[in-house]
Amino acid sequence: MTKEYIQQLKIKNDSSFANLVNENLSNVGNLSFILGNIGHIQKGFDYSWLLELLDYDNETIRVLVLKNLGKVKSTNLIQVFYNVINSDKSTLVKREAVSALGRLRNEQTKDILLKLLENEDPKIVCQAIRGLLVFKGEKQIDETLKKLLDHENEMVQSVIKKEYFSSAKNTKDRLKHPETYSFLKNVIVNADVLKALKYVPDESVHLTFTSPPYYNARDYSIYPSYEAYLQFLGKVFTETHRITKEGRFLIVNTSPVIVPRVSRAHSSKRYPIPFDLHAILVKGGWEFIDDIVWEKPEYSVKNRVGGFQQHRKPLGYKPNTITEYLMVYRKQTDKLLDWNIHQYDYDTVEKSKIKGDFDTNNIWQICPKSDKIHPAVFPAELCKRVIQYYSYIGDLIFDPFAGSGTLGYVAKKLGRNFFLTEKDEKYFEYMKSYKREISDDEVKNTKFFTLEQFKESLK
User: Fold this and answer.
1) 271/226 Cα distance (integer angstroms)
2) What angle do the packed helices 59-72 and 91-103 form, to 10 degrees?
3) Regarding beta strands 417-422 and 396-399, do their DSSP bridges make them parallel or antiparallel, or are they unpaired?
4) Which H or E element spans position 327?
5) Domains of the chain
6) Helical H runs in 294-434?
7) Over the stretch 29-72, which tens digit does the pLDDT of each residue have?
8) pLDDT digit string, tens, across residues 5-36
């Protein structure tokens, strides 16, 4: 049995097809192959044998049957589809029946589809919306669908928002997607990030990669409370959202942090920074995409398991922490990733492609970087992977907590531009004096500003 054989039987359109199906009723694999390779159904095709399979005990078969019945596009099947929606126990089968109704694109389906908007399964509601959007522009349909902006399910909300409430932005005098402002290119500002970002235009950054200061773990990151710390980060990433190009990425490197105990009579406190920060980011308009785990060699981390190794008593187990998270977010948009990619010319896309090996899973094994000046330095290899995977040559890369400036250094080496802010003057001066392997021309092209100098540069 081949695809070609199935096509031949379909063209004959006689009892041969029904006979083939009957011969394979007990073989789910063969039956799936037949139903999955019917392809386009011509006008006048005898589909009566398909109706008999709607009671088949395998849900995959029933879904395939409905996919094929949907191709028939006969209003005689409206009641059939409605009966399946009301009687079948499988949600997958019900959803396919709703989809088949929508594909009819017929006025007679409107009342049923409108009724299905009240279904408890949000995916059925979404399929019903899809079917009703064929009639977009009709007053009753538009008014009913717009009300679903208040639906409790976020999938339903996003569909309605895109279709009815996604206002097109004024593109007059707006930069093209691959472009940014020249006064931001290869600039490092010694200032509080929130003060500096007041002067950065909307949608000017292509990628942000940063590691926020750990809560009260270093001298440079002291906050009055954990809540105040999270609120501060929320403000930073709200502003970052504003200056980020449509549909582009934010990657945040964090890990839980331990604040040491005051004395032996008190306990230390462990704060789950990445997990608490996640809810703030999503609420602020960032869509969660991936979690990447940065795994470090065990010898490079503080030994927490030593005590347990000695006593082996339950409740006292504390594993060595060899991982940090790279939480990947995308600025919410109605546009697909392909839209972002298509904004670039052919040469830029080709030159930006990843060459050689790449990470096939979300566990990245990278040694941490030590530094005499900064206690928590980005490894260049970590920056390299993020920049290559999430940006194009010529893009502007932003780090609101630049530290010793590793991200800018790597971005420049990879043909990108950078914009960095760093509050601590010690690290700012370090970046100015530390030439690394950067060529003289690249050093000359890097601009180091105080906040006042940065403001003056915009005039």
Assistant:
1) 8
2) 10
3) parallel
4) strand 323-331
5) 3-164 (1.25.10.10), 182-457 (3.40.50.150)
6) 306-311, 337-342, 346-352, 380-390, 406-413, 425-433
7) 999 999 999 888 888 888 888 999 999 999 999 999 999 999 99
8) 888 887 877 788 788 888 999 999 999 999 99
